[in-house]
Design goal:
This protein is of the alpha/beta class. It contains 6 helices and 11 strands. The chain binds adenosine-5'-triphosphate and zinc ion.
Length: about 230
């Protein structure tokens, strides 16, 4: 039978920009976990908690589908998944438990450096390369504008130079990658941080108490850092 033990299941990014901070957070919460690079699942030594390490894109869905109890995820990926599921006619359910102070970035529109910016209207009907079509569509919809998507999960910033798109909409933190690709940031579409979400289905008493304990520890960690 699936998940017979009553361990709390938490999903985090396996390797990428959120993984070190996520692991660090769990350690500061007092969880003792030894990760093995090839293993999907790691069980904490001192609490009934198991950590599932997957691609960040899978985390919102795993929580919404109730496959895992908790997930640490960027709001950008969470919100994109919410909008994608809604567009499929599903109302995704989950609880937002906490917003962290790591994983900060912005989803921005960028155009070739040598072009003058005439506002988002100047991109009306044009082709835009992105991994976040839903967040970009919401932004364009709000302004009564449209765009043609060029969907790429990686190398988005090379699309204009390759003649695949007129502009891009991608995650930015310093802007160095944009600059290296002859692009400039012209409009912020969404600001994101990492957050903790929980499945909608209520926890039994044991799990609820454990989640409460972890949340209290996370508050303590945040305060210690201030
Ligand atoms: P995965 O293999 O898990 O799919 P990925 O390549 O999609 O990884 P990363 O580049 O590791 O994802 O980014 C994960 C998350 O980190 C982003 O969705 C975002 O929330 C956050 N992040 C913070 N700063 C940045 C940045 N400068 N560029 C991209 N993402 C950032
Ligand atoms: Zn990803």
């Amino acid at each position: 039978k699936m998940n017979e033990n009553n361990r709390l299941r938490l999903a985090m990014q396996k390797s990428g920009r959120l993984s070190d901070d996520s692991q660090d957070l769990l350690e500061r919460c007092g969880l003792k976990v030894r990760f093995h690079s090839q293993r999907l699942l790691a069980v904490a030594e001192n609490m009934p908690v198991e950590i599932l390490r997957v691609r960040d894109d899978d985390i919102p869905g795993l929580v919404m589908d109730g496959v895992v109890d908790l997930g640490i995820i960027g709001e950008n990926v969470l919100e994109e998944t919410v909008l994608a599921r809604r567009s499929q006619g599903e109302e995704p359910k989950f609880h937002m438990l906490k917003r962290f102070d790591f994983g900060g970035c912005r989803l921005s529109v960028a155009i070739p450096t040598d072009e003058t910016w005439g506002g988002l209207e100047s991109l009306n009907g044009r082709r835009i390369a992105t991994s976040y079509p839903q967040l970009l569509k919401r932004c364009f919809d709000e302004r009564g504008l449209t765009f043609k998507p060029c969907l790429l999960t990686g190398s988005v910033e090379v699309a204009p130079r390759a003649g695949l798109a007129d502009a891009i909409c991608d995650l930015v933190s310093t802007g160095a990658t944009l600059e290296a690709n002859g692009l400039k940031e012209v409009e912020v579409v969404y600001r994101s941080k990492a957050c903790l979400i929980a499945k909608a289905e209520p926890f039994d008493n044991e799990k609820a108490a454990l989640v409460e304990r972890l949340l209290v520890r996370m508050q303590g960690v945040a305060r210690a850092r201030e």
